[in-house]
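Title: [Solved] Disease resistance protein RPS5-like isoform X2 3D structure

Original question kept below for reference.
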Amino acid sequence: MDVRPIESTVGLGSTLLEVWSSLQEKDVGVIGLYGLGGVGKTSLLTQINNKFCSMPIGYDIVIWLVVSKDHTVGKIQEKIAEKIGLSNDAWKMKSCDGKARDIFTVLNKKKFVLFLDDLWERVDLIKVGIPLPSLENGSKLVFSTRHLEVCGKMEAQKKIKVECLGADESWKLFQDKVGEETLDSHPDIRELAKMVAAECGGLPLALITIGRAMACKRIPEAWEYAIEVLKQSAHRFAGMEEEVYSPLIFSYDSLPSDTMRSCLLYFSLYPEDHVINKRNLIEYWFCEGLLDEFDSIRKALLQGYNIIDSLLNACLLEQAGEDYVRMHDVIRDMCLWIACEREAIEKRFFVQVGLQLGEAPDVGKWEGVRRMSLMRNQIANLWSTPTCPYLRTLFLNKNNLKVISEGFFKFMPNLRVLNLSDNTDLKELPERISELVSLEYLNLSGTGIKELPVKLKSLTKCKCLDLSSTENLKRIPQQLITSFSILQVYRMVGSGVYYQDGTMEGNVLNGGNAGLIQELKCLQHLNMLSIEIKSAFALETFLSSHSLQGCAEELVLRNFTESKVLDVLSLANMERLEFLHVANCDNMEEMKITTNFGEIRMTQTNTPSFNALGRVFIERCRRLRDVTWLIFAPNLTMLSVHCCPKMEEIMSERKLNEAENVVGIPHPNPFAELKELHLRHLPQLRSICSDALPFPCLTDISVFKCSKLKKLPLSFDPERNKISIQGTLSWWEELEWEDETARNKCLFVESRLGQC
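Solution (posted by the thread starter after getting help):
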């Protein structure tokens, strides 16, 4: 057993205990440690090795091997042979099979621990001659890798992720490397040093490298300069390329395809710590031409999700919720270094995000750029006429744009993705946007656009058009939507909120969007739709199209002033419906399946089911008394009911019993998947449901202005469900509980005037 040299470490204690505990489990023979390059996997493995040397606990031999990226079976055999005394000139002349037999003969008689550091792919233990660790022989294999997939291929019984350090641990490691003498050399330096440490994102390799580089910097200006460099171009910081990026770039180079490498670099267009929606990102990739396996965006989503999963498994991305990911700051800096410095000139990125820029960069900096991101700045006007023959992606979202000049888009012949979203002061588009003849993705969501120019008809290659939350939109010219003959994605939820129907001629928004629906019916390639419908006639027009129902993912029904009943059964063919919002339907008294629950002709095989429906929002339906139909939405994750003054029950006990009697089977629990429940301004609400149903996934409840709701019929495990309940203090104090211990396990957040 050889003790290995190691520097003092910070923050690995809990992971070390977890690994050591796993090694004591008899049924665990193979343990995989995985994590980002530079996170401390080798240090952790070294600590475990040295702990075995100090307390071997019955093992005969401990073997440490560094498995290089270009390893071979022969090289591994030679290293093991040196450890167990087999290596000599005669032995080296044997075949790999012969060497494997010799190694197996020796190790099969011993109880061993084998450490394999830095695995990039599966090592075939049988070919090497290593006996497989088992309950019978009691031997152990512990390895480190950057790829979760390697853990699977090595059949690890325990897969343990080595995480980046937290803020306190990061600061401790950083100040150890800088030294107290430097930190105390000026009153301002300690606080500035904490800001520098924060830029490292808890990655030990970066903390150590930057800490050492700053160890002799004893004036505040040097630290302020370091902060600016790390924020804007971290690769210029001393030692970053050689000591941080060089090890990390092996992870980039080892990705299996150019497509995956290009997709990874695309993440660097976003700001630091930005939470990125997976689906939106994949749509950009598709329209940019990075995903070329499928012509359909719905199928391309499968390829995109697979790529994201592979990048997560390679520890190059981090999960940030079910539908979101983020990129570690240091990985993003490395990607920017590759995209802005190492790529061929015509493939380079230009990224200046979140810098509070008041003006767009000089036009000379745009030439030769393939992808540009200026998001999250304060740019108000785009007066210049840049020449960008290679530009494919342009992010201008989250600025203060008011004016885009007619010449701005003139020399961007290959632009495919244009994101102008969240520029609320942008009221109109320049007509020469029609010259973007290669454009495939146009995102205008959250802008102040009032009218779509008729010349957009020239954008015949457009595949994705996002008009979500364009509240001021008042006109879409007739025949414009039909000109997008290959459109696959159309979104307009929250669009045209302030438009008074019929006030503008030649407008497909008239008739509660009935004209728009007629044009959408002509689109043969449409397969993702988010739409707002504002009249019973428009809904009838929509439901007459099987294809539109089949591709609808989000549906808003608003301002149905003439309807007293919504027959939910009419929506049952919308198999992909994920979000339903019903609002401002003042005369609607009931949402139900057919005209009466007692008259339903349902069986176990034909019961309507909204299996895809995950989020439901009901608001300002002033005569609605319940939403019992939700028993047919078994996968509901979020329910919000606001401003329904006649609402008495969420689930009507009478209707539940009627439905159960008709179908002949117990109704499913509609709250089995529910995570969020929001009830506001429901003065007549007396109950959610009569029985205490299980809420296994519930984490968040908010209740406000529901004075008659005195009991929450919640049956949940307070140890499993960490529930936050928001409401007024007086309501909380009067609330009745089935189990008082459950009350004590909840986090109560007081709200006043509807504000938390």
